[in-house]
Specification:
The strands form 4 sheets. This protein has an 8-stranded antiparallel beta sheet, with no helix packed on it. The protein has a 3-stranded antiparallel beta sheet with strand order 1-16-14, with no helix packed on it. A 3-stranded antiparallel beta sheet has the order 6-12-10, with no helix packed on it. It contains 8 helices and 16 strands. β8 and β9 form a beta hairpin. One of its GO terms (molecular function) is phosphatidylserine decarboxylase activity.
């Protein structure tokens, strides 16, 4: 019953009109008045924020805020680092059945990537799901240094990607709007699936060129969202300190490429 009601409510509100209205409002100067309440509700610290809070002219501007350069230390070892400030919600294996299991539900990796060719190299590899709540810093950085081999965009939906969305939603991770970046790092491939979230379904790419540097910004979300990392079979060893759920920040070590 709970699952049915949840899906009904989301489908009822998940339309272009509601997304347009919310996007329009969040970009308006009127929305600036909500920033103090937003800070209080989500208990957001301003210590790391690059600009003074009064300089933001809309809720959108605050949401995509930049941080001070020294606020995130990038692990300088031969490691894979977190591309976002987030909560690691799930870690697991990409099954030979072309699925991953998240919160007890199966998601098709083939549908998520939209390509059987892209999928083939990740079968039996590892996946990691990093969830960004509305309180998080929403700029996305590269987890490794390497060469971008392919980028593509899929999906139109904008279902919630929080714990309720993963538990009660319908194929959230493989239906939502998403931008996928595949990186070749020292001959090993990593796919970054950037998944848009409820209503304001937008992911803006800021990086130019086909080479990325570990810890450098490559994109930003315009609403709470999720990043899924996919690793090839037997190429990634997760750091032993990480369990789920696990709070992590940009630049902190996720593990190592083997």
């Amino acid at each position: 019953m709970i699952q049915w009601f949840y899906r009904f409510f989301i489908e009822l509100t998940n339309h272009r009109l509601s997304s347009f209205v919310l996007r329009k409002f969040s970009h308006s100067k009127m929305s600036k008045r909500l920033i103090p309440s937003y800070l209080k509700v989500y208990d957001i610290s301003l210590d790391d924020v690059k600009e003074e809070v009064h300089s933001f002219q809309s809720l959108h501007e605050f949401f995509i805020r930049e941080l001070k350069a020294e606020s995130r230390k990038i692990d300088d070892l031969a490691s894979v680092v977190s591309p976002v400030d987030a909560v690691i919600e799930e870690i697991g294996t990409i099954l030979s059945s072309k699925e991953i299991i998240v919160k007890g539900k199966s998601y098709s990796i083939e549908e998520m990537l939209g390509s059987e060719v892209a999928l083939a190299k990740y079968l039996n590899g590892s996946f990691m799901i990093l969830y960004l709540s509305p309180s998080h810093y929403h700029r996305i950085h590269s987890p490794v240094s390497g060469q971008i081999t392919k980028q593509w965009t899929l999906g139109k939906k904008s279902y919630p990607v929080n714990r309720l969305g993963l538990k009660y939603g319908k194929e959230t991770l493989s239906k939502n709007f998403r931008r996928i970046t595949e990186i070749n790092s020292s001959g090993k491939h990593i796919a970054m699936v950037k998944v848009g979230a409820m209503f304001v379904n937008s992911i803006e790419m800021t990086h130019k060129g086909d080479k990325v540097e570990k810890g450098k910004e490559i994109a930003y979300f315009t609403f709470g969202s999720t990043v899924i990392l996919l690793f090839e079979n037997e190429t990634f060893e997760i750091d032993k300190r990480i369990t789920t759920p696990y709070h992590i920040k940009v630049g902190e070590k996720l593990g190592e490429i083997k």
